Amino acid sequence: MRCDLVDFWTLAARAGWRFHCQYFLYPNPWPKPEQVQRRWHAHPILPAILACSRRTVLRTNWAIYAQEWAQTLQQLGWETNLHTIACTSPDEALTPFEQKYALSGHTLWQVAGTRRPGEAAAGGDHAP
């Protein structure tokens, strides 16, 4: 499926869709400090994203992005696990980006976030 993710998450949250897990799999989105609001954890759509599942996984080669994602989820009451991941063979990579960065010696990071049982989604269970 190809779509505008902001529209997708808005509609999915309004429809009450719940995914088992959502993955965020890219290396370095919007790296400049003035672009932070374009990163998903700082974007206004975050409440709709989080309303759509109780678990998220972010994988990246950018430590600051992983730390920001983990801190945001923690501030919203989610349990997080931030750690490096070993990707020692091409079969272990989830994406071509991950394979490329692992093979070039980059440290890879994963943040697994889980909403605590009974905890409402950020902004409630409905999108704005």
Question: From the coordinates shown, what is the CATH architecture?
Answer: 3-Layer(aba) Sandwich
Q: Return the CATH class.
A: Alpha Beta
Secondary structure category: alpha+beta
**Number of beta strands:** 4
Strand content bin: 15-25%
- Count the DSSP helices: 4
Physical arrangement of strands within the biggest beta sheet: 1-2-4-3
**Gross geometry:** globular
- Examine the coordinates and then state which fold CATH places here, giving the name of the CATH topology: Rossmann fold
Rg for CA atoms: 15 Å
The succession of helices and strands, N to C, reads HEHEHEHE
**Largest sheet data:** 4 strands, mixed
Distance between the termini: 23 Å
> Into which percent range does the helicity of residues fall?
25-40%
Unreliable sequence segments: 123-128
Average pLDDT, to the nearest integer? 87
Task: Identify the quaternary structure here.
Answer: single chain
The name of the CATH superfamily reads Vaccinia Virus protein VP39
Q: Return the domain count.
A: 1
